[in-house]
Amino acid sequence: MNITPSLNGFSQQDGVWYAEGIRLSDLAQRFGTPTYVYSKKALTDAFSAYEKACHKNGRRRARVHYAMKANSNIAILNLFAQLGAGFDIVSGGELARVIAAKGNPAHVVFSGVGKTEHEMADALNAGIKCFNVESIPELTRLNEVAKRLNKKAAISLRVNPDVDAKTHPYISTGLKGNKFGIAYDDVLPTYLAAKQMTHCEIVGIDCHIGSQITEINPYLDALDRVLLLIEQLKSQGITIQHLDIGGGLGICYTDETPPDITAFANTLLDHIEQEGFGHLEILFEPGRSLVGNAGVLLTQVEFLKPGETKNFCIVDAAMNDLMRPAMYEAYHAIVACESNPNAPQATYDVVGPICESGDWLGRDRALQVSPGDYLAILSAGAYGFTMSSNYNTRGRAAEVMVSGQEAHLIRERESIPSLFALERLVP
Ligand SMILES: *Cc1c(COP(=O)(O)O)cnc(C)c1O
């Protein structure tokens, strides 16, 4: 089985795969392998699909805050910033990246269950838009840090709406029993506590129910539960200015059928208006749906190893480059960059060189390849490079952005000396 999603920015013609106007095999030769390749057009089009719904009758009714943990290369952040995006960050490191990418901190929201005092202080000093607070201890800490800096922290509470996003358990975040957000029944009392905090200012409410969600109903259920809270808060004298509905929209890796981005965003925004909340400022926090299908990982076949029960296609990319198969048993389509009619047709497990049986990139794939051929692992733009590691002392891959006939190196391949440059012998 090897089902290929329909892609924008990457295409196949007469057995040759292209990133926009450039052959993938030319990119592999020029930049080496493994290398991540992103299409500027695919990134831009995905963003525009959200923006189309965010504007109606000459009015901005929502703004995209890109969840940058999906792919935080500063060239990609800079592109989205130029297109008008804000950012959803989950660490002080990500805030520093936004600033390095010339993003505007005033359009940054800060999510995450474990914000440190340092991270809070940096974000307050940078003047971010909002802290998405996930617990009372966090609220207390934030209030103290803001007081010390003589600032007011704009806050939103992350509601755990207890809805089933029907996705992989590791990426489901809106159910009771997840570590995320404030339990639904505790939200009102937590807002009342926040109202008493001298250095916090309530500005919003947020939720995020999971990732790779391919149905719209869990969103509508979560939305209704949050809108009910906004009503209840109003009766307690607490005014909410913005509603952040999180991210999580899925993409097609193989045969999934997620809703179209514009239709999805329109449905949610129209629903909010129909329920009488059209005055609210709305935020989306998409990650995967902006970048996932805008990137591929190029790799080269090292060896073919026939086996008794399995044939292995051993490549130079591995689980340290792309964790998703090992971690979530995720499916990524794998294609030969150039057809090779002289090679034998066979079914392979595509695996890396790492010393772990979990080091596989695809299972039972029909391929017609020889050693030295280049392969592209598709739909690798989200949670690909950002989850990569140096396991087995492997330098992380290079990253390249293609625009038309041009290719730009946006991250150099890591050199081997750099991998242990911070280490010291004990004298
Ligand atoms: C990860 C995350 C997102 C983005 O999720 P995607 O599935 O990549 O769209 C948005 N908001 C929060 C709080 C997140 O943790």
Features:
single chain; 427 residues; alpha/beta; Lyase, Ornithine Decarboxylase, Chain A, domain 1; TIM Barrel; 2 domains; eight-stranded parallel β-barrel; 28% helix; globular; binds pyridoxal-5'-phosphate
Give structural notes.
With 427 residues, the chain is of the alpha/beta class. The chain folds into 2 domains: 10-39 and 292-419, Beta Barrel (Lyase, Ornithine Decarboxylase, Chain A, domain 1), CATH 2.40.37.10; 40-290, TIM Barrel. It contains 12 helices and 23 strands. The chain has helices at residues 24-31, 40-54, 74-83, 92-100, 117-126, 136-148, 187-195, 217-235, 261-274, 288-291, 324-328, 416-419, and strands spanning 10-13, 16-19, 22-23, 35-39, 55-56, 59-60, 62-67, 86-89, 108-110, 130-133, 153-160, 182-183, 200-206, 242-244, 281-284, 295-305, 312-315, 334-336, 345-351, 360-368, 374-377, 398-403, 406-411. Strand 8 (86-89), helix 4 (92-100) and strand 9 form a beta-alpha-beta unit. The mean pLDDT is 96. Pyridoxal-5'-phosphate binds next to helix 10. Pyridoxal-5'-phosphate binds at residues 67, 69-70, 88, 111, 208, 211, 246-249, 285-289.
